[in-house]
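Ops channel
N.P.: pipeline sanity check, posting one input/output pair.
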């Protein structure tokens, strides 16, 4: 399919006039084959490149100058005023969980130090490393009556701890005023201790978080009283963490924005001859300067980018190569995840590769438009896949479109074919189409988005421009 100037401008939405011109011209190059090879197409891209080169000379950098000793210091201020989740929000989460458990006739919910325990009680597996000795968060719904005799439900929270670690467990920054800390001795079964502490009615249901290790699930099942079911937490419980609050979105926006700014800053430091390992070191320094923790880094040059998660080599960057950087980190526990494929300033990558970049960019934008409250997640995946299929490169888009993101980089739900999950307000996803032609080129673009109160998808990176504008403007 060829796009007219008007159609291409519509596809770009709010992008710059120069970018709209680029996409309109790219329509000339559409063909049933992924390698175009038309003189007219090359001429169009040569004209495009000339305009970019002129812009690079006239406006050499859009970044503040920094001291070479601290090249990324300017990133530190971007999220400096973003505060963690307040205690009151933890209490709201605990209350919602208790009410959900009560509605499902469940006696308790059990989690290890993990994203879920972090969500409900600020207990991460960084603060408490997992070992063969279980420490368990146990939340039970307690039915009570208020002064007027109205039935209420409140959370009762216990933290099962090894006895010799009890003091350390009580020092964890848990936002719970009245938590109990049942202890188990080395010679005791922690699971029998857990059930003794819960004082559960026989025949109840115990929901176990999906991240709990199998040997703990087995121990709970064997120790459970007669008639008590130990089972995985259902979707009603999982959904509590999937849908993000305004405060969570504030943190995630800043984390994703500063990740984009870090990639842009690193691009300014890359030159022909740089090694992938040097790019990773720069990216690590930039993200750390931005205040992010738990960093993840993929830096790939040239044909290595055709392997989505890395090549195991340390390739040198060619003057006209594409660079793929996929990276992120956590801010107050919440993750960022951004991918940019870009060219060096004043470079001239193969026009056919630029065409693939444009195809991926268009697919990313179509997916964002398909993502609305009430839509099926598979429909969003299909929206991106259909764009790429138009250029006969569908076989090179080899992974799902995206994943949920929050306290974990990858969490449910997922934007993937075959899924019937329904998108809801507060959901957050990555939008990351890609084309990977092994031995030749790889292109992936990734921005995360959320579903706002009106049911629309909005990029978490919108505060710093959202999508990449072109291969020369990531």
């Amino acid at each position: 399919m060829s796009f007219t100037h008007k159609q291409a401008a519509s596809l770009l939405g709010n992008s710059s006039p120069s970018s709209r011109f680029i996409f309109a011209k790219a329509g000339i190059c559409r063909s049933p084959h992924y390698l175009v090879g038309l003189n007219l197409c090359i001429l169009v891209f040569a004209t495009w490149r000339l305009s970019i080169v002129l812009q690079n000379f006239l406006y050499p950098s859009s970044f503040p100058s920094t001291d070479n000793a601290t090249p990324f210091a300017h990133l530190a201020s971007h999220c400096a005023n973003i505060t963690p989740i307040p205690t009151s929000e933890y209490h709201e989460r605990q209350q919602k969980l208790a009410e959900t458990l009560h509605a499902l006739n469940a006696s308790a919910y059990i989690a290890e130090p993990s994203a879920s325990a972090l969500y409900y009680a600020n207990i991460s597996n960084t603060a408490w490393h997992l070992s063969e000795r279980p420490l368990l968060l146990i939340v039970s719904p307690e039915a009570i009556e208020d002064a007027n005799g109205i039935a209420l439900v409140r959370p009762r929270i216990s933290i099962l701890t090894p006895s010799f670690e009890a003091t350390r467990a009580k020092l964890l920054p848990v936002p719970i005023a009245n938590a109990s800390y049942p202890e188990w001795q080395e010679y005791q079964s922690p699971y029998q201790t857990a059930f003794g502490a819960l004082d559960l009615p026989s025949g109840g249901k115990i929901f176990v978080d999906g991240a709990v290790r199998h040997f703990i699930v087995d121990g709970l099942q064997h120790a459970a009283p007669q008639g008590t079911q130990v089972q995985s937490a259902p979707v009603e419980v999982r959904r509590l963490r999937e849908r993000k609050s305004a405060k969570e979105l504030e943190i995630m926006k800043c984390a994703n924005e500063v990740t984009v700014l870090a990639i842009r800053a690193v691009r300014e430091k890359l030159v022909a001859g740089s090694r992938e390992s040097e790019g990773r070191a720069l990216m690590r320094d930039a993200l750390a300067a931005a205040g992010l923790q738990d960093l993840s880094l993929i830096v790939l040059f040239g044909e290595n980018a055709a392997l989505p998660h890395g090549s195991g080599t340390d390739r040198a960057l060619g003057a006209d190569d594409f660079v793929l950087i996929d990276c992120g980190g956590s801010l107050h526990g919440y993750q960022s995840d951004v991918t940019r494929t870009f060219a060096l300033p004043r470079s001239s990558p193969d026009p056919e590769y630029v065409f693939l970049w444009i195809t991926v960019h268009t697919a990313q934008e179509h997916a964002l438009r398909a993502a609305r409250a009430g839509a099926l997640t598979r429909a969003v995946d299909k929206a991106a896949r259909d764009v790429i299929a138009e250029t006969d490169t569908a076989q090179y888009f080899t992974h799902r479109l995206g994943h949920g993101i929050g306290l974990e980089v990858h969490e449910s739900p997922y934007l993937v074919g075959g899924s019937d999950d329904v998108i809801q307000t507060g959901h957050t996803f990555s939008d990351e189409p890609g084309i990977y032609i092994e031995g030749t080129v790889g292109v992936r673009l990734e921005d995360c988005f959320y579903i706002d109160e009106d049911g629309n998808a909005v990029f978490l990176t919108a505060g710093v421009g959202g999508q990449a504008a072109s291969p020369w403007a990531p």
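N.P.: looks fine end to end. Residues 65-80+244-464 form a domain with the Creatine Amidinohydrolase fold (CATH 3.90.230.10).
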